[in-house]
Amino acid sequence: MSARRVPTSTYRLQVTADFDLAAARGVVDHIRTLGADWVYLSPVLQAEPGSQHGYDVVDHSHVDTERGGDAALRALAEAAHAAGLGVLVDIVPNHVGVATPEANPWWWSLLESGQGSPVAWAFDVDWQAGDGRIRIPVLDDRLLDAVELRDGRLYVGETAYPTAEGTVQDGDDVETVHARQHYEFVHWKRADHDLNYRRFFAVNTLAAIRVEEPEVFASSHATIGGWFRDGLVDGLRIDHPDGLYDPAGYLQDLHELTGGAYTLVEKILEPGEQLPSSWPVDGTTGYDALAVVDRVFVDPAGEQPLTAASGAEPTDWQQLTHDTRRGIADGILGSEVRRLARLLAPVAPDVPEDRIVDAVAEIVASFEVYRTYLPEGVHHLIDALERAAEARPDLDDVIDRIAPALVDPAHAAAVRLQQTSGMVMAKGVEDTAFYRTSRLTTLSEVGADPSLFAVSVEDFHQAQRDRQGSWPHTMTTLTTHDTKRSEDTRARITVLAELGSEWTAALERLQSLVPLDDAVFADLLWQAIVGARPASRERLHAYAEKASREAGDSTTWTEPDEAFEAQMHALVDASFDDPEVVAVLDELDRVVDEAGWSNGLGQKLVQLTMPGVPDVYQGTEGWDRSLVDPDNRRPVDYTELRHVLAGLDGPEDDGPEHLPAIGLDGAVKTLVVSRALRLRRDHPELFTRYLGLESSGSAADHVLAFDRGGAVTVATRLPVGLERVGGWGDTLVHPVPLDRVDLLTGRHFPASRGIALAELLADLPVALLVPADLTDTTTADGAAAAASSTSSTTPAAAGSDGTAVSDQQAEIEILEGHA
């Protein structure tokens, strides 16, 4: 195995059949030129035929042939390593795809042989609950009339299922053959309560595997281990560790398999929650960082007017999420709750089953974190038990009876409760409650809490000091394949917090022009239209349908309300076709365009330079106004991105005079991303600490600035308010006094006790300052960058011993004095 590597940054690619590993290899040069340090790949093991995401792995023994196969991964890894880039791969330990049984050898064997299958140990099946058969929820109202017997197999539509040896004889009908199998076809609606295999959340076509078993781990990770033995892969991203039987044990096994390689976990941390320090990982995939970055750009003064504008929205977030979680526990995850109740029945044999089911559902609805990790996280479980008993005093006696088993790490029910609570939280909060709250939809993002409206600059600084001290190599992100809205869409929506009464008036006008019978959802949809503008009609119709059905208030996936959805789609059409509606949106754009541009650049530079390892999601080096998946997984035009980057790196990039041509287009964001990434990659010594910088003057509240140990980030916040107070005026930011250059504009700023923001941010709402005597290697090929033509010739500062040292070293010494 190669020596352990840690990235300075990553660039996420969504690998599909249409953008396969060969295509990914083709953009390695762009990723390197942009300045990213590692290539970060979505799952690449063999997935369901036609899978667009790769999280439905069907065969762990090789790389997906539609994505290019083993040879293509090797070629990509070799190209990345030759370019000096590391390789990070997303893996899926918790579940496998079972939509196409023929494609999954393990699942086919299980269906064919049942408990006698040589791989029966791989799946988490309650055979007793199914009378020895596994229930497959694929039938419609025709029931077994929808099943055909052809060539010794049973077919539901065009999907084939195996038959056990000796169970098909000449003259048998479908019902007879079906009764002899180790599986039972049931109506799809029975999945909510009668399923007897564990799934990924409520997805019937993703069956959980028991990776805690040594044989399952060895079989499902043999190829992954080979990647590290062959030096192809340098790190892993672990999907959904909360679904595992024993996350800590699994991560330790993985640590040993990879030789301690760089590892991240897709773990959602609620406010105040910490990643277990005992886990042998480098951090999370960055949703905790996203939540803080978003909120430091939100105007707290907007909370009251936006809350009022949201109309009928529930004001108690905790009650709303309790109720949505309870709805999930009683509904699509009812089969998991019932399985828990069956495990608990022996500890309360005299308690009716329905009361145990009710108590378990109330407990999982009462968690404020995704999962407790026993025994170290037992306090979260105790809190949930107490909240459940308080909310349902009629169940207090049942909760008392089952509580000892649930807090016992050795009890099967305690383990399964841990695996279940995260599913209930994700479906109840992310996929339901987030679509039922609309006062400012920026706040409804994975890993965030919409009840927390804004974060102060000082709280932001504290969060960064904590990250630098505890998890310096954790990922930071703003956009992922799972975010509800991309970073630039949220940057535009964030502006609404500054508009207050203007947005309220606009929303009332839009509602009067195109009424929708669900006021909360109407607010959410109009914000999406404003944020993603100018999104296509097709994209907005698709978003409206998904968002409304996820909310589940006025329409649902299983029982769509045709009248409501027609009204909703008419609203989307009006945003294109009704002149009065378009006029309202155009007037909003007059403010949102420029302020969203400022927010977008600010949050991006902050994310790229704050503590942690920044990830750039594919294509977001340019403006990207995406909505929820699959919208955020659309193809990326790398030809155009290369063209933009080449233009910035050309001879015209020699100072601020080229900036007016950039305007509000994508080039300016690419400038910010490339200069920040290159600086982190080429000069990691400038990013060794964190110091929040003070500002003074009439607009001091509108600046966010920090020093990372040589690199200084300055970003504008609340740009609408800044304009209303007349601009920067006398406002100064106060870094350690050294000669500096702004890498984004090439401007030189001599050492002083304060830098005037009116000058520093005259061209852009952000600045990235470096010591003026820095030897420039911030372009991909080591050529002079934007700042090189203005490098200072000021004599070096004197060190504490009287000898000459560079400005950078002088700053480090001064910073150490402030530590």
TrEMBL record:
Protein name listed in UniProt: Maltooligosyl trehalose synthase
Biased composition (Low complexity): 785-804
Species, as recorded: Curtobacterium oceanosedimentum
Spans annotated as Disordered: 464-485, 785-806
Domain Glycosyl hydrolase family 13 catalytic, chain residue ranges per copy: 14-652
Source organism phylogeny: Bacteria, Bacillati, Actinomycetota, Actinomycetes, Micrococcales
Transmembrane stretches, start-end: none
